[in-house]
Design a protein that fits this description.
The protein is mainly α. It has helices spanning 7-61, 66-89, 91-117, 123-143, 149-154, 166-169; strands at residues 147-148, 176-178, 184-186, 202-203.
């Protein structure tokens, strides 16, 4: 026989999902942001390096005067500067970090979708499933890079709660609590809950 699912638990799953979606989108957009910058900077550095090599070869065979040599030196300096920027800013590795975080948030979101439709039958399995999702969210949030401020605003990514739902923790006797709508909910077991995604910190660096 399938145990009844407390409505507060369903509300918590929905709350987790609603917080995961903006974070997943923001992480994905940040990934694309850094991929664009990586290619823009890398291609520019490569083209300037090639132009510098060609110019230096030409100046060795001809006396082109002072200004062409100054122009060649400036292009060489800019090329070296861009090459150093590619190494220092690490846009490629930062984009990969955002891509991984987005994929991980997406995986947890799909787990929640499945639980919302096919919750395990026994109360013990239901508690274990919620604990698993909670632990996964906490672990991903620790490792995920901070979301860029502009994408946090666009996706309306909100800070995670600092206090677990009272309906999940229940009283000392586990008698129950209320959900977000004020409805009394019987709770027969405590479920430790990790706060929903904490990766909503913003990163103003570009």
């Amino acid at each position: 026989m399938k145990d009844a699912i407390p409505s507060a638990w369903i509300q918590v799953l929905e709350d987790w999902r609603n917080r995961l979606v903006p974070n997943q989108i923001a992480q994905f957009k940040a990934c694309k942001h850094f991929v664009r910058r990586h290619y823009l900077l890398g291609i520019s550095a490569t083209l300037l390096a090639a132009a510098t090599s060609t110019s230096l070869f030409a100046t060795l065979n001809k006396d082109l005067g002072m200004w062409p040599r100054i122009a060649t030196a400036m292009v060489s300096f800019i090329s070296a500067l861009l090459t150093s920027a590619v190494t220092f800013l690490q846009y490629g590795s930062r984009a990969e970090g955002y891509r991984i975080a987005s994929a991980q948030f997406g995986n947890v979101r799909r787990e929640i979708d499945i639980l919302q439709r096919y919750m395990p039958k026994s109360r013990e399995e239901q508690i274990a499933a919620l604990q698993k999702v909670s632990a996964e969210i906490g672990e991903i949030s620790k490792q995920a890079p901070p979301i860029l401020e502009e994408y946090a605003k666009r996706t309306k990514s909100v800070p995670s709660p600092t206090v677990p739902s009272p309906a999940l923790t229940g009283g000392s006797g586990g008698s129950g609590g209320t959900n977000t709508t004020g409805e009394e909910v019987p709770v027969t077991a405590k479920v430790p809950v990790t706060a929903a995604p904490s990766s909503t910190m913003t990163d103003s660096r570009e």
